[in-house]
Design goal:
Blueprint (H helix, E strand, L loop, with lengths): L2 H16 L5 H10 L6 H11 L2 E3 L2 E3 L11 H9 L2 E4 L4 E5 L5 H11 L4 E6 L3 E6 L2 H14 L1
Antiparallel strand pairs: 1-2, 3-4, 4-6, 5-6
Length: 147
């Protein structure tokens, strides 16, 4: 996924969290107000990629599956992580909706996975420092299992 598309997805999640947007046209207009020039087909692909659903006629992020973990920290990661990238052999970059990175990072810290050395969280991005390449792959599998 390109950096621009990831940023647009984060903006869409922010917009639907802060106002009721009922149609693709309303979503496109809201994005345009924020400086994004997107086509209807891009909006349609973004909605599908994010798995958005309509609740009371407005777009929303889907609720986690009922079979989600009972562990509140695992649930926080499952609900908060919207993208994962690898950076080198010892770093995983997690993407969250705006304002969620700190909570997801803290949840990851509390899980105390042996592969994870530490985390640094910003507003919507978390850097996860990992011991080595093998540990990176194990941690990635755990994150993917949760998300």
């Amino acid at each position: 996924m390109t950096a621009d598309r990831r940023k647009r997805h984060l903006k869409i999640l922010e917009l639907i969290a802060t106002r009721a947007l009922h149609t693709q046209e309303e979503l496109a207009e809201a994005l345009a107000e924020e400086g994004w020039d997107v086509t209807q087909s891009s909006i349609s692909r973004d909605i599908a990629a994010l798995g958005l659903v309509k609740v009371s006629g407005a777009y929303r992020k889907p609720e986690p599956q009922a079979a989600a973990s009972e562990d509140p920290d695992e649930r926080r990661i499952a609900e908060g992580v919207i993208g994962v990238d690898l950076a080198g052999d010892a770093l995983i970059v997690l993407h969250t909706p705006p304002g969620e990175a700190s909570r997801v990072g803290a949840a990851l810290d509390r899980l105390a996975w042996p592969e994870v050395i530490g985390t640094i969280a910003g507003d919507d991005t978390i850097f996860v420092a990992i011991r080595d390449r093998a540990a990176q792959q194990r941690a990635l599998r755990e994150i993917q299992r949760l998300t």
